[in-house]
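Technical annex, item 7. During the second reporting period the consortium partners agreed on a shared format for inverse folding records so that results from different sites could be compared directly. Each record opens with the tokenized structure and is followed by the designed sequence. A conforming record, contributed by the partner at site C, is shown below for reference.
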């Protein structure tokens, strides 16, 4: 999706929250750097869960990362069910509004 946006000159703002255990676990780091240079509206936030201090994504951290995001923006979620807004302990469920377009 990001490559298509870059190829077509899409100017929308994009916040990508990318969770990995450590920097070494980030797949395709060069591809993301390339996409950031081609998409001026792309901002990648890395959440490194096994890097001290532990950077677990909770509601407070998620709200900081998404502070500049409109509440009516489309949201794309990918990950295990714990990251789905249907689960009350999820930081996403606490932040996301039922009115959002969630894909």
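Designed sequence (site C submission):
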């Amino acid at each position: 999706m990001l490559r298509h946006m870059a190829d077509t000159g899409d100017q929308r703002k994009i916040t990508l929250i990318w969770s990995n255990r450590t920097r070494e676990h980030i797949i395709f780091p060069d591809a993301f750097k390339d996409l950031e240079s081609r998409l001026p509206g792309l901002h990648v936030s890395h959440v490194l869960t096994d890097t001290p201090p532990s950077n677990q994504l909770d509601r407070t951290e998620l709200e900081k990362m998404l502070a500049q995001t409109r509440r009516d923006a489309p949201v794309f979620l990918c990950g295990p069910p714990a990251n789905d807004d249907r689960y009350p302990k999820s930081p996403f469920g606490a932040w996301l509004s039922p009115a959002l377009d969630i894909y």
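The first strand starts at residue 14 and ends at 20. The chain has a mean pLDDT of 75. All partners now use this format for quarterly exchanges.
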